[in-house]
Amino acid sequence: MIVIKSLDDGTNRLLAVIEFKSMHGSVGNILNNRTEEAVGSSHDLWKAFEHGAFGASRPFLGYIYVMSDHPSNLLGIDRRNMLFQPLEEYMRFPRTRMQLIMRNVRNYS
What we know:
Elements: E1 2-6, E2 12-23, H1 27-50, E3 60-67, H2 88-91, H3 97-108
Parallel strand pairs: 2-3
Antiparallel strand pairs: 1-2
């Protein structure tokens, strides 16, 4: 979704760009791909902004991830077959971030 404001002088100002990313099925399998796409798109947009493509005001940039309620998204990660063990900072919490998100979504549904 793109939000543009037409100014009195006949020019347009880009106010916001919001991209929707869908994740159907197991989020763990596609989260990295969606994250790479979001980082790449935002990098391209900011480079264009630096070169004056959108005027002087910095636009809002957002991403909305739309996820399905898939059973595999509620499972933990099997860490036994990893090439390198995760850093201690990532091991302190018993639930993954995605589990907490999905639980909160269910509570508000």
